[in-house]
Amino acid sequence: MMMAAAGPPSSSGFLPLLESLEDSAAGQSEQTDAYLTIANRLSGEEGRQFLPAVEKHFSRLGKVTLAHISSSNVELSQAALQALGFCVYHSRVVSAGPETFATEILSTLCSLVVKSTDKNTCTRALWVISKQSFSPDVVGKKVPAILGTLESVWSREDIQSVVMEHEALNVVIRMLEQVPGQMGEGAVRWAKLVIPLVVHSASKVRLRAAAAMELGMPLLLEKQMEVAAIIEPMMSSKLIPELQKLFMSKNETNVLKLWPLFVKLLGKLLHRGGPFINSLLHLEELGFRSSSPTIKKIAFIAWKSLIDNFALNPDILCSAKRMKLLMQPLASIHVRTEALLLTKVEVWWYLVVQLGPNLSPNFDQVSVPLLQCTIGSDSSSVPVTASRPVSQNGASTPSTPKTPFSTSANTSLMSLNSSVHVPSTFPSIQLLGLEMLLHYFLGAEVIATAAKNKLILSLEPLNHSLLSGASSFTKHAAVLTSSIRDGFTNVGKEAPDSLLAVIWRNLVQFVNLTIESGSKKDRQGCEVLTLMLQALQSIVTSEALPAHKVLILLEATVKGIPHRVLGSASYQVGKMDVLNGTPALFLILLLYDSSLLTAYIEDERFFQCLQMLVGCGLSGPTSPLAFGEAVLGAMGRSAGFPTEQGAAVEDVERDGQPTDRHHHTV
C-alpha cells in the first residue's frame, strides 16, 4: 500500500494521510489505504508516537471519517470504521473534540447498523461502539438509541451472523461498564436480548452473553420482578431444554455457572413451584451425579444460590419440604476428595448461617448431620436426631432415626437415590467441625474470643446465637457434648490448645448455668453434668490427647463447676457401686486409673486440681473417711504414685484443709 510508508510516526507522517482523506479528488483506493495506515499505526508499536498528532487533528479526521463510513464503497466504509475505532478507543483523542461531535458519531454509527445491508459493515460499526471511550454523559443520553439499534440487530434475519451477535454483546458489556445507571433503566430491554443468547449454538456467543448477564446482574435484580416475568415463559419453552442439551454435550461447567444466575433472577417465582422449577432442579441433579469432582464442586457452589433464594422468605426456607430439598445433596452426596468435601461443608455451613434465628428448631435436621460429616462421629454414638432434651436418666430419649432422603411424592424434590455414606474424614475438615462447635457456643462473640485467644476462624460467624440460656443448652446438650467428645478424640491432638480450652470452658459454663438455674427437684443440671463428665471420661480413656491437653480440660472443669457440686453425692456418676461417689471422686479415679498418670504428675496443674478435688470431697456431705480411703486406694493401685501426695490426702483428712506441699517426689 502506497500510503503505508508515508512519513515518520509523527504529525508530519499523519498530516499527509489526513490531507489525502480530505481531498475529494483522491481515489477511494488511496483513501482506504490511508485509513488502514492510521489504524495500523494506532494499534502497533508506533501508536504512542502517532497518537498526539491524531489527538490534535481529531476534529478534522472525525468529520471526514463520518462521511466515509456511510460510503457505498464497502472497503472504504470498513477501513474508515476501523480507523475510527482505534481513534475513539483513546480517551485523550475523544476528549479533544466537543460532546456534540461524540453524539454525532454515535448517532451515525447506530444509523449505519440499522440501515446497512452489509453484515460486515454492521459488525464493524458495532465494534466501534464497543471500543469507544466517550464521556459517560454523552453515552448515557444515547443508551435508548443504542438499545434500539441492538434490538434491530436481532430482528434483521437478513444480515445476522455469529460475529455480529458477538459484537452486539460487546456493546452491551461496554454500556454496562460505562453507564450502569442508564443501563439499569433499560434493563428489561437488554435482558430480552441477552438472556436467550446464553443458550446460543455458538460457544463464543454463549460465553459473551453469560458474561453480560453476570456483569449486569445487580441492575437486573433492581427490576427483578419485571425481568423474572420475561424469563419465566422462556424457561420451559427454550432455556431449560437447551441448557440440558448443552450439559449433555460437555458444557457442564457453563450450564452450572448459569444456574445460579437464573435462580437469582427468578426470585420468589421459584417459591410457587411448577414444572419448569423441577426441570431447573434437574440440571443441578445432573451436576451432582457427575463423576467429575470439578463439576460436582461447581454444582455445590451453585446450590448456595437456592439457599439464598429460599432465604428471601424465612417461612419458605424453614418449611419442611424446602429444607428437605436443600439438605438432599448436602447429606446424601458422598465425596472422596478433601477439596470437594471442603466445598460441600462450606455450602452446608452457609445454610446454617442463613437459618439465623431459626437455627435451633432446624438444628437436628441441618447441624447434627453436619457435625457428623465433619468430625467423623461414629453413627452409633450420635443419633440422627440426637439434639433432644436429655431424659431423666441422663441419656438421649430414643426415637426413630430420620432418614433425610426418604422418597417424597413432591416432584419438586430431587431424587438422588444416594444412600447415606459415612464420609471420608480429613484432619482439616475435622478441625472445621471443632470450629463449628465454637460458633455454636459463642455466636456473635466468636470474633472477639478468637482474637483474644489468637485463633484463626475459617467459617462465617452466626448472625444469631444458638444458645441463649440453660433451656436452649439443655435442648442441644446431648449432641453438643457428644460432638465435643468425638472431636477432641479424633482431632484434638492437632487442634490448638486454646481452641480446646475455649470450647470446653464454654461447655462447663453452660453446664454450670443449667445447674444453677434449676431447682433441687430439677434433674436437668445433674443430667448435663453427667453427659459432660462421661464425655471427659471417654476423652481421657481414649488417650487420644497428650497429658497437657487433658489437664487443660481437667482444670477448666474443676475451676468451672461449683465445689459444692463436685463434692455432692447428688451428682454421682461412674460406677454405682462406689460408696458415697461424687464428681470429685470420679475425676480423681479417672486420672489415677489412666496410663498417662506418669505424664500428669509432671505438670503442676495436676496437683493443683488434685488438691481442689480432695478438698471438695472432704468438705462435702459424704463420709470423709470413705472418700479418703477411695482416693488412697486409687493411689495405691497406681504404680509409682507420689507418696507425698498420699500424705497430703492424709493431712486433709486429719485437718480438713489441703496442705500446701509443692515437692512432687514419685
Give the N-terminus to C-terminus distance in angstroms: 101 Å
Strand content: under 5%
Oligomer: single chain
Helical content class: 55-70%
Quantity of strands, as a count: 0
Global mean pLDDT = 86
What's the Cα radius of gyration? 37 Å
Helical segment tally?
Answer: 34
Question: Low-confidence runs (pLDDT<50, min 5 residues)?
Answer: 1-9, 379-413, 417-423, 651-666
How would a crystallographer describe the biggest sheet? none
Structural class: mainly alpha
Shape: elongated
Q: What key attributes describe this structure?
A:
single chain; 666 residues; mainly alpha; disordered C terminus
What report would you give on this structure?
The protein has 34 helices and no strands. It starts with 10 loop residues before the first helix and ends in an 11-residue tail after the last helix. Helix content is 68%, strand content 0%. The N terminus and C terminus are likely disordered. Among the domains are: 109 residues; 188 residues. Helix 16 runs parallel beside helix 18. It is mainly α and 666 residues long.
